[in-house]
Amino acid sequence: MEELDIMMDxxxxxxxxxxxxxxxxxxxxxxxxxxxxSRLNRIEGQVRGVKGLIEKDTYCDDVITQIAxxxxxxxxxxxxxxxxxxxNCVLERIQEGDLDVLDEFLVTIQKTxxx
Length: 115
Fold this sequence. Notes:
Helix 2 (30-55) runs antiparallel to helix 3. The chain has helices at residues 2-13, 30-55, 60-95, 100-113. The longest helix is centred in the last third of the chain and has 36 residues, at 60-95. It is built from 4 helices and no strands.
């Protein structure tokens, strides 16, 4: 958990920056992009590991524990992206007078909270 906090602090220092909403494309600093790709690579490895556990008929509880770890790691990626999006994309659009971005952001938050 401590490692995650350190990585999130580093990611906050160079939060992803989204351009004008018309492009709907994100521009991340190289540091943030490297951090996110690294996290996703680890998650990809965890998913392959779970597949292997299932193929080896590993005890269900152990597989479920690994799946929970994957979900937590994905939540960490989402938190970094959401923070950067709020601090950059959403803020910029509000400053431009585009208040529709608030409804869009709320929908995004609702999607991330579904379980």
